[in-house]
Amino acid sequence: MPLTTDLIKYIDMQLEHKDIKKALHKERSLPKKIGVDILGVLLIIASGLVGWLPGPGGIPLFLGGLALLASNHEWAERLINSLGHHGNRLSEIIFSEKPRVQLIFDIISFLLFTLSCYVISTTQSTFFKVLFSGLMFTSIWLFIGNRKRLQRISRQIRQKRQK
Q1: Do 149 and 143 form a contact (C-beta atoms < 8 A)?
Q2: pTM, rounded to two decimals
Q3: What SS3 state is found at 151?
Q4: pLDDT tens, 91-107?
Q5: Closest by alpha carbon to 96, among 27, 147, 51?
Q6: Which one has a higher pLDDT value, 43 or 53?
Q7: Which of 63, 89, 115 is the C-terminal boundary of a domain?
Q8: Which helix (H) or strand (E) holds 57?
Q9: Which domain holds residue 31?
């Protein structure tokens, strides 16, 4: 819908002491709000169902559902902002700087990777192949996340791009 002069004047009146999101939020019809909320909740439920699959799993679905809910609810928007703000701290909490803990993470990730390779190569069950493929990817991410390897790799890639 193209913006007309009347619509712009109406929005300006609505924005006197409010932000644009709140003004535009009022204009959305109730059935659209309900539909967006239902879709957001369904995406969050789907994220729990596919979260165990290899790859990013349900994280994009969860974030998408939360983003849809944030378009109608302040609490969801605050949760998204909090997740973005504290997301980096999570890796600092999980991956300690203590050498003994780092060694334990490396050993666990190696053992999980080895076990996954063995089960995938010897089993005939598709279920176990998929399950242990997910475990294999998890072990790789544990290994890469430990000792700040991912940060070093990212820094090297950025430096090469700048040259």
Answers
A1: yes
A2: 0.50
A3: helix
A4: 777 778 888 989 998 99
A5: 147
A6: 43
A7: 89
A8: none
A9: 1-89
